[in-house]
Task: structure prediction
Amino acid sequence: HLVEETISRRYRLHDLLATYAAELAGPTDDARTRLFDYYLHTAKAAANFIFPRDPHSQVVTSPPIRSYEAAVRWLDIERANLIRVACDHSGHTTDFSAVLIWYLDIGCHLDDGQRLHTQALAAARHHGDVAAQGIALRALGLIHFRRDRFAEAEQNLVAALALHEASGISYAETMTCLGALYGFAGPVEAAIRHLRKSADLLKKLDRPLLAQWALMHLGLLLHRRCGRHEMALACLREVFSMAEEHNYPPAQAHAAYGLAGLHRDTGRCADALDYAGLALSFADKAGFTFLKGL
Result:
C-alpha cells in the first residue's frame, strides 16, 4: 500500500515514500521548482474565485478553472499537496499562506490553516517581511475566531491591523475581520466603525465584492446586537443583490443566512424559511462548511 488511489486516476504516496522521493529530488531540482510554481500559479487563479481580489483577471491554467465550482473542486483535490509544498519548502510558505487564507477559512480547514499560517508567520519574521507577517497574523486570528478563542483572535487581528496600516487592500481586509470579531463578541461601536470604514475603503479601491463582506457583517451586527432591523435589512439586501449579480456563492449563502434570521426575528416566518433554504443551497455550492453548521 505504498501508492493509494484516492479518487479516479488520482494517486497519493505513502508519507515515507513521498519523503524519500523528495530527498532524491534534491532542494534545487528544476522539476520541483516548476512543480511548485505550477501549484502556486494555479492556486492563485483558483483562490481569485473564492475571494475575488482581481475579478477581471483572466489567468490561463491547466486544468482550466473558469468558475467558482471548478476552483473549489481543484483546491479540494489538491489541498494536501498544496499544504505539503507550502510547509516543506520555506521559500513558498508566505505566498501560499496569502493565497489560501480564504479557501481554508470558508472550508473550515482549520488544522491545515493552523499549520500553514504558523509556519508562514515564522518565515515572514525571519525574512523581515512586514506585509506577510500581517497576512499570517490575520489568518491565525480568523482560526482563533472560528474556534471561539476571542481574546487570541483579537490579539492577532489587532497586531495584523497595525502591520497593515498603510497597505491598502490588506488593511481593509484585516479591518473587516476585526470588525466581524467585535460584532460577534466585542465593543459594538468599534465594530460598526471598522466595518463601515472597511466597506468605504474597498469601494474606493474598486473592490465591491470584497466590500460586501464588511456590509454583510455590518448587517448581522445591526440586527443581532443593535435591533436596527431596517438598516440591517438594507445592508443584507445590498449584499445579496450584489452577490447574485456576480454569481458569488459565499456571499449569497451568508446574506441569505442573515436575511433568514432577520425575518425570523421580525415575525416573517415564511420569508425566513425561504431564505434559510437558499442559505443551505448556496452554502453547499460554495463549500461553506462553517455556515452549513449554523
DSSP finds 14 helices and two strands in the chain. Residues 30-50 form the longest helix (21 residues). The radius of gyration is 20 Å. The mean pLDDT is 90.
